[in-house]
Design brief:
Elements: H1 6-10, H2 17-28, E1 34-35, H3 47-58, H4 71-85, E2 94-97, H5 100-111, E3 117-122, H6 127-134, E4 138-143, H7 154-160, E5 165-171, H8 183-193, E6 200-204, H9 220-223, E7 231-236, E8 249-252, H10 255-266, H11 274-285, H12 291-310, E9 325-326, H13 331-336, H14 343-354, E10 356-357, E11 359-360, E12 370-373, H15 378-392
Parallel strand pairs: 1-10, 3-4, 3-5, 5-6, 6-7
Antiparallel strand pairs: 2-8, 7-8, 9-12, 11-12
Helix pairs in contact: 2-14, 3-11, 4-11, 5-6, 5-10, 7-8, 12-15
The protein binds pyridoxal-5'-phosphate.
Pyridoxal-5'-phosphate binds at residues 39, 99-101, 125, 171, 175, 204, 206, 236, 238, 244, 249.
InterPro entries: Aminotransferase_I/II_large, AspAT/PAT-like, NHTrfase_class1_PyrdxlP-BS, PyrdxlP-dep_Trfase, PyrdxlP-dep_Trfase_major, PyrdxlP-dep_Trfase_small
GO molecular function: transaminase activity
EC number: 2.6.1.-
């Protein structure tokens, strides 16, 4: 057999794959499957953004750009950080990548040595632990369940940090739970982090704009200015501007870390697409009014889905603060169904019995739950909730 690296062998195939594969199979066989698994807005990219990309092609912006991004996009990102976050960065503190995902991958690869630990609150975005493993790091999972609104406490954070800890990941609002930390909560976590100067904070702000709390968006760098020097803020255009396919994300942080990330990117993928970068300038500099109608739709769907879920037998779902995900506790519902022993089995069962595809909580490090993406039409959601209720029954 051809030898594969230990690195790649370390990474487990995604537990969501079984469900996705099964859903595709069922669809191919003619079943009307409603997919609630998508991690992307169902809206089209706003017209002025697409138009900027077309213009870029016509203007011949079709060549390599600087590895870390075009000057125009880096300026737009600097302006965005000032406008939305009150954070000021020099140009050498910013790196444009092919998605926030690549920004995070660059970060882990730039910072971790073998055995270094990454503190990852669970439920987590599926890629954090595997990215840590690919960079020879060790994920240290900190579990936060529904009773704590899926948010870790300062005591939990303190207990998770060791002398091997190099990165703490914070994702607010969160995929998969929709929970966001408040300013006060960030302040309390910051107090812990202050005691561990060797620890870098990765603030994944990708859902920044998809938020409906009374309190405005914040991240730890905004709340604890003294921690800016060791925080890498990761963001992008994918979710806010319905631009998942364009693949533009960015990171901002200490020049040394950003420089190291840039070096890795320069030897792996170089610059992100020149055309997508031009589109992203239009997204960040253009009319921000395009975001609100999408957030309004997400919120209406959120309210509907959460209410329907809570009326189902053995299902309990807290209201989210943002994103387009609900993360109901289905542990009781599982025990009510003959032959279903876990959330993973439940997800497969639901595809067959209800023709609804969702992602089991196990994929996000907190079993007994399911992630429901409501980035789909209200019509689909109504049908999907009726079908789920058909399986679970009513309270
Ligand atoms: N971070 C989180 C929490 C996400 O949910 C996603 C996308 O699903 C990403 C980062 C990556 O976004 P992108 O690479 O499209 O910018």
């Amino acid at each position: 057999d051809i030898q594969l690296s230990e690195r790649v062998e370390r990474v487990k195939p995604s537990p969501t794959m079984a469900v996705t594969a099964r859903a595709a199979e069922m669809r191919a066989a003619g079943h009307d499957i409603i997919g609630l698994g998508a991690g992307e807005p169902d809206f089209d990219t706003p017209e002025h953004i697409s138009e900027a990309a077309i213009q870029a092609i016509r203007n011949g912006q079709t060549r390599y750009t600087p590895v870390d991004g075009t000057p125009a996009l880096k300026q737009a990102i600097q302006a965005k950080f000032e406008r939305d976050n009150g954070l000021e960065y020099e140009a050498n503190q910013i790196l444009v990548s092919s998605g926030a995902k690549q920004s995070l991958y660059n970060l882990f690869t730039a910072v971790l040595n073998a055995g270094d630990e990454v503190v990852i609150p669970a439920p987590y975005w599926v890629s954090y632990p595997d990215m840590a493993l690919l960079a020879d790091g060790v994920p240290r999972i900190v579990e936060a369940d529904q009773s704590q609104r899926f948010k870790i406490t300062p005591a939990q954070l303190d207990a998770a940090i060791t002398e091997r800890t190099r990165i703490v990941v914070l994702n607010s609002p969160s995929n998969p739970t929709g929970s966001a930390y408040s300013r006060a909560e960030f302040e309390a976590l910051g107090e812990v982090l202050r005691r561990y100067p060797q620890v870098l904070i990765a603030s994944d702000d990708i859902y920044e704009h998809i938020l409906w709390t009374e309190e405005a968006f914040s991240n730890i760098a905004m709340v604890c200015p003294d921690l800016v020097d060791r925080t890498v803020v990761v963001n992008g255009v994918s979710k806010a501007y319905a631009m998942t396919g364009w693949r533009i994300g960015y990171a901002a942080g200490p020049a040394r870390v950003i420089g190291a990330m840039k070096k890795i990117q320069s030897q792996s993928t170089s610059n992100a697409s020149s055309i997508s970068q031009a589109a992203s300038v239009a997204a960040l500099d253009g009319d921000q009014g395009v975001i609100a109608p999408m957030v309004k739709a997400f919120r209406e769907r959120h309210d509907y889905v959460v209410e329907r879920l809570n009326a189902m037998r053995g299902v309990s779902c807290i209201a989210g603060d943002g994103t387009f995900y609900a993360y109901p506790d289905v542990s009781e519902a599982i025990t009510n169904i003959e032959g279903v022993s876990s959330d993973t089995v439940l997800a497969e069962y639901l595809i067959g019995e209800a023709n609804v595809a969702l992602v089991p909580g196990t994929a996000f490090g907190l079993p007994g739950h399911a992630r429901i993406s409501y980035a789909t039409s209200m019509e689909n959601l109504e049908k999907a909730m009726d079908r789920l209720e058909g399986v679970f029954g009513r309270d």
